[in-house]
Amino acid sequence: MALKELILKYAPVAVQDAGISLYNTHLYRQRHRGQYKAWQRYYQKFEQADAEEISREAARRQALFLRWATEKSPWYAAHRNKALHEFPILEKEQLLANMDRIRTLDESQGIVSLTGGTTGASMKVIYHPEDMQERFALKDHFRARYGYRLGRKVAWFSGKSLVRPADLESGRVWRDDHINKIRFFSTFHIGPRHFDAYWRALQDFQPDYIVGFPSSVLDLCALAQERGLNYQGRVDTFFPTAETVLPMHREQIPAMLGCRVVDQYAASEGAPFILQCPEGSLHIHPLTGIFEVVDENMRPAREGEILVTPFTTRGTPLIRYRIGDRISLAPDDYRCPCGSCFPVVRHIDGRSADFVWSPENGKVNLGNISNCTKDAEGIICFQIVQEEPDAVDVSVVANERFTPEQRGRFLHAMTQRLGQGVRIRLDQVESIPREPSGKFRIVKNRLAQDAMRPLPQEG
Ligand SMILES: [Zn+2]
Predict the structure, then answer these.
(1) pLDDT tens-digit map of 132-163
(2) How far is the CA of 344 from the centre of ligand 1 (A)?
(3) What is the pLDDT of residue 291?
(4) Rounded to whole angstroms, what are the CA distances from 340 to 35, 48, 274, 281?
(5) What spacing in Å lies between the alpha carbon of 337 and ligand 1's midpoint?
(6) Ligand 1 centre from 275 Cα, in Å?
(7) Gap from CA of 231 to ligand 1 centroid (Å)
(8) Which regions form coiled coils (predicted)?
(9) What pLDDT does 119 receive?
């Protein structure tokens, strides 16, 4: 057993807290060494630049990145001097199977990042240390616009399983980094049984910021609301990570905690950044990479799947990588009131695999599905699983306000979206398990591709 696991399993809580503090401080130093400061100045400078300067710099970065990839990565060697659109699309399976030919560094030369793959296979991506410093410089620069810096109190809700059974009994559902003032909450145990412990710990800590899974923070807020509780204090900003932010997150979390919700998009295998500005728009950052939005036939579109070419993936170059997420773009002539010339994304639709298939209506996306709870009271969370083209299983966690009438409204809303031809089996449950990564999936589509055939058109 590794030392880290031994400590997590057997050491007293105080020792664990100290270990976590030291480990974080080590990570912080690793990410903030070297070129970090220079990159912060770089992003500061280009925030005020005009459109022409930006596009010149974006073109320069793109050329540098493609040259690096074709010179250093055996996988891309055959594509020297090609324009971006001439490169082949890189599928996730190809990345997994050919990692050793794609990467340009050994594990010992870079920083290894593990991603929970969607199919269960985990992906190991190697970052060039300087690229990691650039990514953190931008992330910190972005959060600093909202007053965030290391040392302000932060509550963290992400996929770490850091709590033992004995801790659950005693209500110690978190670990503290006392040096950096971060409280890490376990996201695996938020539910009616341990709610009091979570709520007390959050209330006592009085964080300025919250970072983490929106589904976890929402669960906590929904349980508090159900119990008629008010949060004593005020959280400044919530920075969601890893999951798609839905209207229900943007409504219910600020209503309970008094915070702003400020979204970002940056996948851990390395994607370019999309960052929310103070006016609430989501801006693509053109100096972090290229987003191509494509339709089902891989042709340019305003709304659809994205192919990403992130400039900070020199360790494992990703070119036109089909990352599996969808976005929709705002009109080209849209000017955000914040004054930035960076392109605006209307919304981030999340994983392209997160939809329910309807023989009548085609793909019904996650945002649309999550809106089913709008007219029904008492639902705390739900999950919809599809294994057959004409039926879905819906699990609902709800309180006593979820009466037969509300249940009827919820089913009606669901039928409107999925069509009359889809049978809905609704099951009220105590709790719904999260994924091994700690994330919560509202939609689980297990249909085979060939099961998704539209109904023949009449007449
Ligand atoms: Zn803006």
Answers:
(1) 999 999 999 999 999 998 889 999 998 666 78
(2) 8
(3) 96
(4) 25, 8, 13, 10
(5) 6
(6) 9
(7) 30
(8) none
(9) 45
Give the residues of the chain that fall short of pLDDT 50.
117-120, 459
Superfamily assignment of 355-451 in CATH?
ANL, C-terminal domain (3.30.300.30)
Residue 459: what pLDDT?
A: 45
Residue that the structure tokens 């939809």 belong to: 355
Reduced to 3 states (helix: H, G, I; strand: E, B; else coil), residue 393 is strand
The pLDDT score that the predictor gives to residue 267 is 78
pLDDT of residue 411: 95
Amino acid letter, residue 391? A
The CATH-assigned architecture of domain 3-261 is 3-Layer(aba) Sandwich (3.40)
Centre of ligand 1 to C-alpha 345, Å, is 10
Residue 331 CA to ligand 1 centre (angstroms): 14
Cα 330 to ligand 1 centre (Å): 12
Q: Which residues have their alpha-adjacent CB atom under 5 A from ion ligand 1?
A: 277, 279, 281, 336, 338, 340
Nearest to 241 by CA among 277, 260, 217: 217
pLDDT of res. 218: 93
Domain map (residue ranges) of the chain: 3-261, 355-451
- pLDDT given for residue 136 in this prediction: 92
Q: Are 67 and 92 in contact (CB under 8 A)?
A: no
341 CA to centre of ligand 1 in angstroms: 8
Q: Are strands 282-284 and 344-351 parallel, antiparallel or unpaired?
A: antiparallel
